[in-house]
Amino acid sequence: MMKLALLVLGLAGMASAASVTCSDPVSNNGRVTAKCGSTTYDLTCAFQTKDTDYVSVLVPNGDNGQYIFYLNANQGLKAGSSDVQYCASVDPLSPTVSGGFQADYKQGGSCWSIGDITQQTWIEASPGQMQILIKGGTGNRQAAIYVSCDENAAVPNVTYVGENDATNTYQFEISHRSACTDYTPGDCNSAPAPTKSPSGKSGHKKTDVGAILCGVFFGVLGGYFIFGFVILHFVQKNPPSESVPNKEFWVSLPGLVRDGFAFTLARIRGQSASTYQSI
């Protein structure tokens, strides 16, 4: 319920301090894009599958029956299409091309539009998080679709969130890689290559803690030698061979490492761990 309430609140307000209202979706060469601030989104592949020009989800209607929802916020759906089952006819007051249909799964022909494809608004809630509101369906029905970035989703994952009876709004969530800001549009009928960041690496940038720690260690060690040499040689006027900081320690270090290995090996073998030599 909390998740549904937040989704409804975000779509009902249609704006927040961090959100960006996008330009009207533009159709070109079978793809639909919208510019949201400095980012252009192409969500064509989020609304179709390899076999259909839409995505769908089956939902129990509470009366031992089921509804099936068809969605395509990009190019829309036409009633009577052989691809859209159970929608042989639609309320004549509905738009010819709809952004989605609600169909009775058991009674063929009982189908209602849930949004006019020409009455939609796209909003970028945050980078990689899109909100699409489609109004003008049968009986003032409307669809609120939340599309989020999932770089591993080559196929759209569609979830029915619920219905807001007060506004007659049907809410859906779709996760797909096309909502990612670094997504490169491709053929929806084949699994596209993983999205690439400007650095050429897949996915989000991740902090390599090991690399950071190694960098800090060797940076400090290098500074230790450089500044120590400067002070010993140029300030204290020692010859170069005597200007290595803690020279005696570094000279004895190989022997200390050898003794450490010998001690550990002796412990493993169960021998005496003493490595001291007789005087």
TrEMBL record:
InterPro entries assigned to the protein according to its UniProt record, in alphabetical order: Autophagy-rel_prot_27, Man6P_isomerase_rcpt-bd_dom_sf
Membrane topology type: Single-pass type I membrane protein
Secretion signal span: 1-17
GO terms of biological process kind: protein transport
Chain coiled-coil ranges: none
Record's subcellular location: Preautophagosomal structure membrane
Entry's transmembrane regions: 209-235
A family per Pfam: ATG27
An annotated GO cellular component: phagophore assembly site membrane
Keyword Transmembrane listed: yes
Keywords attached to this entry: Membrane, Protein transport, Signal, Transmembrane, Transmembrane helix, Transport
Record-given protein name: Autophagy-related protein 27
Species of provenance: Monosiga brevicollis
Organism lineage: Eukaryota, Choanoflagellata, Craspedida, Salpingoecidae, Monosiga
